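Thread: Newbie trying to understand structure tokens

Hi all, I'm a second-year student working on a class project, and my supervisor (Dr. K.) asked me to get a predicted structure for one chain before our next meeting. I've only ever worked with sequences, so writing a 3D structure as a token string is new to me. If someone could post the tokens and maybe explain what I'm looking at, I'd be very grateful. Here's the chain:
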Amino acid sequence: MKKIWEKDGYIIRQAEEKDKEAYYEQNFNPLDKEVARFTGCKETFTREEVLSFYEKCLISEDRYDFLIFSPEGKIIGESVINDIDWKVKSANYRICIFHSVERGKGIGSWAVKTAICFAFEELKLHRLELDVFSFNERAKHLYEKSGFKVEGIRRDAVLDEGKYADDIFMSILEVEYSKNR
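---
Reply by user tm_fold:
Sure, no problem. This is what the structure looks like when written as tokens:
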């Protein structure tokens, strides 16, 4: 089930083998420091680490990895439904816009709404969950605007620039999606 969505020249489509080199070169060479901060990952990855992970994602049966392309055809982000539990019909969600110049344009909002729609309408999931750090207020607001609700907080669970911050757990259920559609 290959899906493609388009809006104002931007495209979201499933990751493919042919994208792996560009995925690394355009986004991890180097990784934006704000991306590392907001996602809690390290700032430096080797080419081999990224390509190996990318290849594993392509063959995994418990995830859907979508790439976000600029009108110029550059990979600028990813939108991922992963850790799918088909029995419980539940999954995790994450999104990343890799480049600061692409943020604040509504691309993230569109990608989140597209992923939620795909999760409930195509995959027939019951629950979609995520976590977001408390210092990433822009993302938390986006998730709330998209229908996610806070369901728990791990207080002082992460360090951000020498200060403790919370890890906020959020989810949206199929019934909530259906009501707000």
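A couple of things are worth pointing out once you decode it. The mean pLDDT is 95. Strands lie at 4-7, 10-14, 64-69, 75-85, 90-97, 127-133, 149-160, 163-173. Feel free to ask follow-ups in this thread.
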